[in-house]
Predict the structure.
Amino acid sequence: MIEQKADVFIPALRFNFLTPFYDWVLRVVMREAAYKQALIQLISLEEGSMILDAGCGTGTLTVMIKKQFPQSEVVGLDGDQEILQIANSKVFLSGDLIQLDHGFVTSMPYRNESFDACVCSLVIHHLTTDNKVKAFQEFYRVLKPGGKLYIVDFFTPHNFIMMAITSITQLFEETYDNFRGKLREFIPNAGFKELEVRQNFWTPMGTVSIITAMKQQSYKE
Ligand SMILES: C[S@@+](CC[C@H](N)C(=O)[O-])C[C@H]1O[C@@H](n2cnc3c(N)ncnc32)[C@H](O)[C@@H]1O
């Protein structure tokens, strides 16, 4: 098994020199509009909520969330300083007020129970198994009771074409867990309830799914 420290990360397109092309690849090759739009429609929150976009990358989804929930406080977090500069420019151009932080999903710089929702798009497949487990524990820690988790990532193939593609793309240790459906174990093991696979999308790299789960309400007298 490959050792991956908690404070290291695989850049958006695996190599730093490819980061400037990330938005183009996501838009043209990876069909990001399909699942990011669908995700936005699924998020149900009261205005004034606190929302974290963990592993926000260039900030495309972060800005979409803020546009959908203008009265909410949206925070983007990423481990890559270089990609955060792109996100900063995007946020500036959007005219929205969004906090962008540098940090790692395995040890997030936030207090317990800070957020009403945690969104994490195309990040989990960048993490080794150990770090996936830590990341879900962190999502659980920073969510308020009743808080919602929204994961968008590679998942079990949903048709034969995706199955064929996945036979190659699952060869990386980080993507293997995703395509083998291991998130179905990791998410409840971190304490989450009501896991649901909401929608599946084809991409040239394999199935991308939207998965939701919830941190249980605490019932205090
Ligand atoms: C494929 S990009 C996804 C970006 C964005 N969420 C999206 O949907 O377009 C993965 C992002 O996760 C970040 N990342 C990878 N490992 C991380 C970690 N351990 N902590 C925080 N960010 C991480 C990378 O820097 C990159 O920006």
